[in-house]
Specification:
α6 crosses α7. About 40% of the residues are buried. It is built from eleven helices and 17 strands. It is globular, with a radius of gyration of 21 Å. The strands form four sheets. A five-stranded mixed beta barrel has the order 6-9-7-8-10. The protein has a four-stranded mixed sheet with strand order 12-14-16-17, covered by helices on one side. The chain is of the alpha/beta class. It folds into two domains: about 280 residues, Spore Coat Polysaccharide Biosynthesis Protein SpsA, Chain A (Alpha-Beta Complex), CATH 3.90.550; about 80 residues, no CATH class.
Length: about 350
């Protein structure tokens, strides 16, 4: 079995820690390791380093080599430019299907937290065994919702198919991306919907044929690129042709069009969180809602329900009589905002483009 970890996002909502030059997946958000390093660590020792692949932007190659020297550089899939997840997965699966078209592959993301690692590994093995028996299939690994989130996608699950090992399989009934508040509450109450993590196990051949069927423009263009894979001219062709691929999300291009009978779902609580924004990080790490989450030199008096991260070792942050605040201090930026206003961070950072603050993006 192989694993592909996607690590190409920019992570603006975790600014000022996450920047274009070094996005969130390469930064120390939890403990002393980056979330990319933690994503690889979760797979070990079930996967050897040779079985783990990284898909990212070519600009981040040196960072990854420094953080993950054990993974061979031949296991990197380097996008010359950002074209969304659809073309990125087409490139990865197109190359892998030339090597092992019917071997199970799990798709993962580099900026997530998984607390129940042992259970997670068992679920991966379970899904891999099912796909190995039926290479023309896909298994989604979903999560039992903890609350009615409006910021996550949902998988509609159907009848229980079978139960083997640590978790049952359910039939797949479709996706819903980021429902409104009322719909999210209905989903949560129904018990028929699970959070879509973007994790799935399938085979390169199955996904490659799906691109041929549902996204022929991407398929034709990517086929032209991978025809040169392993030759001296590959990088030149990649740079020339990749930008011609249409920009589209993988869910829209492929997953929403799959025949439902080819898919199944595993739903469990693996302690998953998407560390996409500061308030999401706080929710992931807190043991109770009013808890303060701190890092670095911080002293608090009368502070509740706040996250204070200090990345400057010589400076002390003192907080007094604060509630629901996010404070992040880096070498060149100090961010102070109410927790309810974190959604505005991305908008503010985008305004820096073309100004004297552009180097801070």
């Amino acid at each position: 079995m192989k694993a592909v970890i996607f690590a190409g996002g920019t992570g603006t909502r975790l600014w000022p820690l996450s920047r274009k030059k070094s996005p969130k997946q390469f930064e120390r958000i939890i403990g002393d390791k980056s979330t990319l390093q933690l994503a690889v660590e979760r797979l070990r020792p079930d996967f050897s380093y040779d079985e783990i692949y990284i898909s990212t932007n070519a600009a981040y190659k040196d960072i990854i080599q420094k953080q993950l020297p054990e993974i061979p550089s031949s296991n990197y899939f380097l996008e010359p430019e950002k074209k969304d997840v659809g073309p990125a997965i087409a490139l990865v699966m197109g190359i892998l299907q030339q090597k092992f078209p019917n071997e199970p592959v799990i798709i993962l993301w580099s900026d997530h937290l998984v607390k129940e690692v042992t259970l997670f590994r068992k679920i991966i093995a379970l899904a891999g065994s099912r796909v190995k028996k039926n290479p023309d299939s896909i298994v989604f690994i979903a999560h039992k919702p903890r609350f009615a989130s409006e910021n996550l996608g949902y998988i509609h699950i159907g009848k229980r198919q079978e139960e083997k090992g640590v978790a049952p399989f359910y039939s797949f009934e479709g996706f819903k991306y980021r429902p409104d508040a009322e719909t999210a509450k209905e989903y949560f109450a129904s018990g028929a919907y699970a959070w879509n993590l973007g994790y799935f196990v399938t085979t390169p051949g199955f996904i490659w044929r799906a691109f041929e069927r549902f996204a022929p423009n991407i398929f034709i263009n990517t086929k032209k690129i991978i025809a040169r894979y392993g030759t001296p001219g590959f990088n030149e062709v990649l740079k020339k042709e990749y930008g011609k691929v249409e920009k589209i999300n993988f869910d829209n291009a492929i997953l929403e069009n799959l025949d439902k009978e080819t898919a199944s779902v595993i739903v469990e609580d693996i302690g998953w969180s998407d560390l996409g924004a500061w308030e999401a990080l706080k929710e992931a790490l807190e043991q109770y809602p009013d808890e303060n989450i701190i890092r670095g030199k911080v002293h608090l008096e009368g502070v509740t329900d706040s996250l204070i991260y200090n990345y400057e070792g010589e400076k002390l942050i003192v907080g007094i009589d604060l509630d629901e605040h996010i404070i992040v201090n880096t070498r060149d930026v100090l961010l102070i905002t109410k927790k309810t206003s974190v959604g505005k961070v991305k908008t503010v950072v985008e305004k820096f483009e073309g100004t004297e603050h552009k180097e801070l993006i």
